[in-house]
Amino acid sequence: HGTMVLSTRLGDWTVEIGQPWRNEQAGLTPQLLRPGTRLLVHGHRSARKGERLMKAERIVVAGKSYNLYPDRAS
Asked: What is the average pLDDT across 44-50?
């Protein structure tokens, strides 16, 4: 899995994204994830209280959704 740091008003979060092949299948390119891109991440946060870590399942860039796990129910 890849990771990225997402800066928010409440602080930075580490976001685990899919393997390169999974991102490619979803249409999510490295250019879409370059620094400064505004995006919305849907997924699951860490069960550890206070840990700013989440596993992305869907990423929205410029209004377009990139579903990393289309076989999972939303």
From this structure: 95
> Which two three-digit tokens encode residue 66?
């990139």
Sort 42 into a burial class: Cβ within 10 Å, 0-12 / 13-18 / 19+: middle
Where in 1-74 does DSSP place strands (E)?
2-8, 11-17, 39-45, 53-61, 64-67
Asked whether the CA dihedral 30, 64, 37, 6 is positive or negative, the reply is negative
Tokens of 33: 């994830």
pTM of the predicted structure, to 2 decimals: 0.87
The token duo for 48 is 């550890």
Residue 7 phi/psi, 5-degree rounding, is -90, 125
Alpha-carbon gap, residue 26 to 41, rounded angstroms:
14
